[in-house]
TrEMBL record:
Keywords recorded for this protein, A-Z: NAD, Oxidoreductase
PANTHER family: 2-HACID_DH_C DOMAIN-CONTAINING PROTEIN (PTHR43333), D-ISOMER SPECIFIC 2-HYDROXYACID DEHYDROGENASE NAD-BINDING DOMAIN-CONTAINING PROTEIN (PTHR43333:SF1)
PROSITE patterns recorded: D_2_HYDROXYACID_DH_3
Species this protein is from: Rhodococcus opacus M213
Domain D-isomer specific 2-hydroxyacid dehydrogenase NAD-binding: 141-312
Signal sequence range: none
GO molecular function: NAD binding; oxidoreductase activity, acting on the CH-OH group of donors, NAD or NADP as acceptor
Superkingdom of the organism of origin: Bacteria
Name assigned to this protein: Phosphoglycerate dehydrogenase
């Protein structure tokens, strides 16, 4: 790179946060034209207003701006289809920061060549969404233990039933499938409630607040021990449909399922069968395999299911936290240090 580091703002970023990037070093030069970016509708809205359209001339100016940059702050318009042409039009591009924690899936979807994946470094926003998603995960664990679906049903029917003994999280075992940033925070919160915490990790080793760490291959045994199972896994070829009929059959009867990773990790027809049969008690889903969830999906009408429209990760501070993460990595880049959250372009996470 030249003495000036040109950073193209490829997705919306509040002007009030841009100083976080420029203050990293005097060499940083932002390439940005707000007329070329869709307005944000809410904090963390990296796609921007879907009604926004560039004129042909505006698109040409936007493409020209991207072609001059050393770094992209965001995948252009957060669309994988826009990433490949932008990479190919800019032989000097060295780094792309994705807005998503699971940005590896977007990079994979761009269908870049091996040479392009070697030339350009991709990093994700992993860690930014850990606490919000962990709180949703714990919501599911607590709601499952306290029979939230039954409470809602009885309230809707104005029915005052006999009393019953609710489950206690401090007496339960919570399995966290995937001990990345989200999983570690989920484990911390579950442990704070007194639960026994099990976890899986690609390379098992001690993890704070986790009583037992196992490889993913141990899932058939682990699901049989867990009162609640929290999935935080990224969407990869290896995780696609991971939690299917066989693992559901092996799951402890009455278990609660929570997914804050990627919807493709769970085989939805098998999940539906497990819920309808009563083998699984309830499910709390921030993500589903196809988003938006099709209106004909049985999940919509199931009283033991709570669906969040992939919104649990959002917080009013998301944009600032991603900008701060980017600034940290930008400093590391200038100092010749290894960047954080680099995408593994073999497994794409």
């Amino acid at each position: 790179m030249s003495s000036t580091i040109k950073v193209a703002i490829a997705t919306p970023l509040d002007p009030g946060l841009r100083h976080l990037l420029t203050e990293v070093d005097p060499s940083v030069d932002l390439l940005v034209d707000d007329a070329l970016l869709p307005p944000q509708r809410f904090p963390g809205d990296h796609e921007g207003d879907p009604a926004f359209r560039r004129t042909r001339k505006q698109q040409a100016v936007f493409d020209s701006l991207l072609s001059e940059a050393d770094i992209f702050y965001g995948i252009p318009d957060t669309r994988p289809a826009a990433l490949a042409p932008a990479v190919r039009a800019n032989p000097g591009l060295r780094w792309v920061q994705t807005m998503a924690a699971g940005g590896g899936a977007q990079v994979k979807a761009a269908d870049l060549t091996a040479e392009e994946l070697e030339r350009v470094l991709f990093t994700t926003s992993a860690g930014v969404h850990g606490r919000p998603l962990a709180e949703f995960a714990i919501l599911g664990v607590l709601a499952g233990a306290k029979d939230l679906p039954r409470l809602q049903s009885q309230q809707a029917a104005r029915h005052w039933s006999d009393r019953w003994a609710m489950k206690q999280v401090h007496e339960q075992t919570v399995l966290v499938v995937g001990l990345g940033g989200i999983g570690k925070e989920t484990a911390r919160l579950a442990k704070a409630l007194g639960a026994t915490v099990l976890g899986t990790k690609r390379q098992p080793g001690p993890v704070d607040h986790v009583d037992e760490v196992h490889p993913l291959s141990a899932l058939p045994e682990l699901v049989g021990r867990a009162d609640a199972i929290v999935f935080t896994l990224p969407g990869t070829t290896a995780t696609d449909g991971l939690y299917g009929a066989e693992l559901i059959a092996a799951t402890k009867p009455g278990a609660v399922i929570v997914n804050v990773g990627r919807g493709t990790v769970i085989n939805e027809p098998s999940l539906i069968d497990g819920l309808q049969s009563g083998h699984l008690a309830s499910a709390f889903l921030d993500v589903v395999a196809v988003e938006p969830l099709p209106t004909e999906s049985p999940l919509w009408a199931m009283p033991q299911v709570v669906i969040a429209p992939h919104t649990a990760a959002l917080s009013p501070h998301e944009d600032r936290r991603i900008a701060e993460l980017f600034a940290t990595n930008l400093r590391r880049l200038i100092d010749g240090k290894e960047l954080l959250n680099v995408v593994d372009t073999q497994h794409f996470y």
